[in-house]
Amino acid sequence: DSGVTQTPKHLITATGQRVTLRCSPRSGDLSVYWYQQSLDQGLQFLIHYYNGEERAKGNILERFSAQQFPDLHSELNLSSLELGDSALYFCASSELGSMSTDTQYFGPGTRLTVL
Amino acid sequence: AQKITQTQPGMFVQEKEAVTLDCTYDTSDQSYGLFWYKQPSSGEMIFLIYQGSYDEQNATEGRYSLNFQKARKSTNLVISASQLGDSAMYFCAMRVFSNSGYALNFGKGTSLLVTP
After folding, report:
1. How many other β-carbons are positioned within 10 Å of the β-carbon of residue B46?
2. Smaller CB count within 10 Å for chain A: N or C?
3. Distance of alpha carbon A101 from alpha carbon A95, whole angstroms
4. pLDDT tens across B78-105, in order?
5. Backbone angles phi, psi at B84, to 5 degrees
6. Residue spans of alpha helices (H) in B6-114
């Protein structure tokens, strides 16, 4: 158990819908990262938050947004869902986020299926 | 661009034998971190081991060790005394400052199957 929690574990929804994925980082970690894992794209970085502020964006679609709250939990919002958004979404946390040595610990993931 | 290459899509190893999973990387930065993660069929990503670019010694963590060759830009994972529970996908990742901040950049992974 990494100490990072994600809910829900599975999510099945229809095209055009909006969903929210939730993540709670390890105790003491200030950084939260979101990654998407799909068969064709592999593991891709979406967005990074540090202590409530957005720090970096990766290949995140405009239909997707995220935020980190004062209690450091984070939510990833996916809207106008398409079939291609079906993937495993990971949240990871790390203590700092500003060093190459900072280890990221992953949550169990949320498996999103868009029908 | 920062790139991670894992050239072995799949590997087989017999139980109790050692296996080496290859990983090469490409960066012009001097400061970076190299990580290995295990993803079993259940889906979670489990951190295994870390090697810093300035570390002079190869990292070890239980049955996991790294063969870090900085000049060749490779960091191969060695799993000793393989167990059936080691069957999983293994991902090599690099962390270096880029347009994506300090996000991890992953390779495509190697599927390891441990046979009895």
Report:
1. 16
2. N
3. 10
4. 999 999 999 999 999 998 777 777 889 9
5. -55, -35
6. none
Query: Do the beta carbons of residue A50 and residue A30 sit within 8 Å?
Result: yes
Cβ–Cβ contact A92 with B under 8 A = yes
Average pLDDT over residues A46-70: 94
Nearest CB to B91 within list A43, A99, A103: A43
pLDDT in tens, B25-53: 999 888 899 999 999 999 999 999 999 99
The β-bridge partners of A12 are A113
B12 to A1, A22, B21, B89: CA distances (angstroms): 27, 37, 11, 12
CA A22 to centroid of chain Cα atoms: 8
Give the mean pLDDT of chain B: 94
